[in-house]
C-alpha cells in the first residue's frame, strides 16, 4: 500500500477519508491542494502530515520562483498557510522549518533560486526516506518489549500505521514486527470516535496483513482490560514534550488511565521528529478543535439535536506518569523522561 507518492511534479495521496470503502487518490500539483488535504484529514498521522507538508513546500516554492524578487516573502506566506492547517502534530512544523532553514542557508550562501528548488526537492524526499528508516528501527526496538511466546494481545487507539507514516508505521510497525516474530497474537483496535481511524484505517491495515484484529468501541476498552483480554497498550503520538507528556488522538488519555488501573503497560511509539524539545510540558501543547458536525453526524446522518453545543477536541495529552515507555528509533526510553529526552535533544543537536 502506498499512501503517498511523489513523481517530481505531483504528490499523489491516498484519500484516507474514503477508506475502507473506496480507494481514491488525490493528485496535488499545488501546495493549496495539499493544505486542504491535511485540513480535511485526507492525509493524516503526524509523520505523514510532515512529509506531505515538505512536498507541498516544493510545489509552493516552484510557484514562488516565478517572481524571484518576491521569492522569500511568497515562501514565508506559503509556510504560514501550511502551518495553519493543523496545530497539534509537531511534525508539520518540524518539516516546514527544516525546509525553510534550507532556503535561508542557501540564500545566505548566494545560491540562486533554481538551485535552491533542486535542493528543496531532495530535502523533501529525504524527510520521507528518513521516516521509512525510522519506522524500521522503531518496529525492531518495540518488538523486543514482547516475549516470544505469542500469547500477548495488545490494544491500540487511532491509526499509527502505514497510512500515517512513510512505511509500516510506529505503533503498527511494532505490532507488525512483533506479530511476524510470534510475540503478539491479536490486536484490539478502538474504533476511535468521532472519525473512526481505528475501525476504518487500523483494522483495514491489519486485515490486509492477516493480523488478527478485533474492533471495539472506545467505551469498551476498560471492560476488555478488566476481562484480561489485553496485556499491553501501544499508541502513536502527535507531540511529546521534554517531560514525556504525550499528545495523541482524543481518547488516548482515557486508555492510559484505564491501563494504569489494570496494571497494563502503556507504550508510546514515536520518532524523534514527534518530540518538541522546545516545550516543557503537555499543558503548552495546542489542541486542535474540529467542527461540531464530526460529532453530531454519523455516516452522513444527523444523530444529535439541531444546534446542540458540542466539544470536539481532536487530541488529548497523557501525562508522563501514565506512560510506561516511549519507543523511538534510538531505543526505548523510560522515566525519568526529562533526563532521557534531554539526552535525545543533545544527540539530535538541540533541534
Ligand atoms: O487526527 P489524526 O488522524 O491525524 O490523528 C492521528 C493520531 O493521533 C496518530 O496516533 C498519531 O499521529 C501518530 S501517527 C504515527
From TrEMBL:
Keyword Cell membrane: no
UniProt name for this protein: Methylthioribose-1-phosphate isomerase
One Pfam family matching this protein: IF-2B
EC code(s) of this entry: 5.3.1.23
UniProt keyword Isomerase present: yes
InterPro entries: IF-2B-related, IF-M1Pi, IF_2B-like_C, Initiation_fac_2B_a/b/d, M1Pi_N, NagB/RpiA_transferase-like
Gene: mtnA_2
GO molecular function: S-methyl-5-thioribose-1-phosphate isomerase activity
Signal peptide interval: none
First-tier enzyme category under EC: isomerase
Amino acid at each position: 500500500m502506498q499512501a503517498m507518492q511523489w513523481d517530481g511534479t505531483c504528490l499523489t495521496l491516498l484519500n484516507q477519508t474514503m477508506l475502507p470503502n473506496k480507494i481514491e487518490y488525490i493528485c496535488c500539483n499545488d501546495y493549496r491542494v495539499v493544505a486542504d488535504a491535511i485540513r480535511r484529514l485526507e492525509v493524516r498521522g503526524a509523520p505523514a502530515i510532515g512529509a506531505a507538508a515538505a512536498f507541498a513546500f516544493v510545489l509552493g516554492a516552484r510557484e514562488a520562483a516565478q517572481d524571484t524578487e518576491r521569492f522569500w516573502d511568497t515562501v514565508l506566506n506559503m509556510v504560514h498557510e501550511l502551518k495553519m492547517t493543523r496545530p497539534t502534530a509537531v511534525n508539520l512544523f518540524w518539516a516546514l522549518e527544516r525546509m525553510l532553514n534550507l532556503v535561508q542557508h542557501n540564500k545566505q550562501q548566494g545560491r540562486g533560486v533554481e538551485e535552491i528548488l533542486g535542493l528543496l526537492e531532495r530535502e523533501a524526499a529525504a524527510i520521507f526516506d528518513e521516516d521509512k528508516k525510522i519506522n524500521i528501527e522503531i518496529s525492531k526496538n518495540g518488538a523486543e518489549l514482547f516475549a516470544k511466546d505469542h500469547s500477548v494481545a495488545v490494544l491500540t487507539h487511532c491509526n499509527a500505521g502505514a497510512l500515517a507514516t512513510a512505511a509500516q508505521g510506529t505503533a503498527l510497525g511494532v505490532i507488525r514486527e512483533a506479530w511476524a516474530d510470534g510475540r503478539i497474537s491479536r490486536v484490539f483496535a478502538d474504533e476511535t470516535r468521532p472519525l473512526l481511524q481505528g475501525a476504518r484505517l487500523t483494522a483495514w491495515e491489519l486485515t490486509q496483513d492477516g493480523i488478527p484484529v478485533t474492533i471495539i468501541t472506545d467505551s469498551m476498552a476498560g471492560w476488555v482490560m478488566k476481562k484480561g483480554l489485553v496485556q499491553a497498550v501501544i499508541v502513536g503520538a502527535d507531540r511529546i514534550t521534554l517531560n514525556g507528556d504525550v499528545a495523541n488522538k482524543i481518547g488516548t488519555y482515557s486508555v492510559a488511565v484505564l491501563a494504569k488501573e489494570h496494571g497494563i503497560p502503556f507504550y508510546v511509539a514515536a520518532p524523534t521528529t514527534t518530540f518538541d524539545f522546545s516545550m516543557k510540558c503537555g499543558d503548552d501543547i495546542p489542541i486542535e478543535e474540529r467542527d461540531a458536525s464530526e460529532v453530531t453526524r454519523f455516516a452522513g446522518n444527523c444523530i444529535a439535536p439541531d444546534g446542540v453545543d458540542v466539544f470536539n477536541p481532536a487530541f488529548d495529552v497523557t501525562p508522563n506518569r501514565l506512560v510506561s515507555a516511549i519507543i523511538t528509533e534510538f531505543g526505548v526510553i523510560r522515566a525519568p523522561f526529562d533526563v532521557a529526552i534531554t539526552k535525545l535533544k543533545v544527540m539530535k543537536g538541540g533541534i
